[in-house]
Amino acid sequence: LWAFPLSKxxxxxxxVEFENILSLAKHLLSDTKHLHQNFKAKYPLEGEHKLDTxxxxxxxxxxxxxxxxxxxxxxxxxxxxxxxxxxDWLKKAAHGVRPMDHEFTSIHNRIDKLVKKIDILMxxxxxxxxxxxxxxxxxxxxxxxxxxxxxxxxxxxxxxxxDYATRVLFLMKNKL
Length: 176
Description:
Elements: H1 14-42, H2 69-93, H3 101-124, H4 144-173
Helix pairs in contact: 1-3, 1-4, 2-3, 2-4
């Protein structure tokens, strides 16, 4: 028998990992846009819808260039965790919007995959993970009206967040 030396797994390049994370975020953004359009078509509702438990984008376009990799990844991970909890609630409360249950699950799973990849990158870059934020207090009422209104708010804000996140990930990747 031939003896081959065991090859050690090469530590992956953080830029390559950033590229993978950025690709996931872009695909999630595209899927979210599509699902948001479907949601709006099936459940039209005019006006702006707010939900106080959603993460707040606390940085403006001018400050994007100053974002640090450690703080940026930690904030993205925390905010994605919160959005995941909102989609969990939406999926559970969506008895009135059952035809979209599969799509909610798909978005949830993609968020989970993105959070895990960001967390792995944070470990490789020795970035301390902030403890998970407290779970948001989402509405107790699951009437169809409440679910639709909350769904509109979640989709709208998540779409904006993902647009922001892809820009931030691109800028952070270039800082490595």
